[in-house]
Amino acid sequence: MTSCTAVVDLETASDEDFAWAFQWLVGDANFDFTGHNLILMARKNPGDAEVFIAIDSGPNAVLPAGLGGITFNPPVAPSLVIDTFNINISRAQMTNLPPDVYVQSLVLIRPDGLREEIWNGTLTHNIGPTR
Fold it and tell me: What is the CATH number of domain 6-126?
C-alpha cells in the first residue's frame, strides 16, 4: 500500500463535542476499512510521552466509556464497502484539555498489524464561552 499522508488541522472547543465524519480516498477510490482499525492521538509536541487525546476504533478502546471514539459507518449501496468513519471527542474530554495547539495524527492499523499514517496536523483547542 502506498502512503497517502495528508495534512488535516482540527479545531475544538471546551464547551462542545467534536464530531465529524470522514472519508479517505486513495487515488480516486474510496478506501475500504473492513478489518482495519484507526487510532488518533494528540500531544503537545511530537516527542512528548504525555498523550492529551487518544481515541481508537478497536475493541480495546484507549479511553473509558463516554469519552469519544472512532466508529465506522455501515456500507451504503451500491459500494457495499466500509468507507466512512466518525471521529467523536466528547465535551467531557474537551473540558479537561488545556487550551493550546497540539500535534495530532490518525493512524490506520492494518489487519496484519502494520501501521500507516493517514494524516497528521494540528489540533487547536479553545476555551468555549459557555463552558
Answer: 2.60.40.10
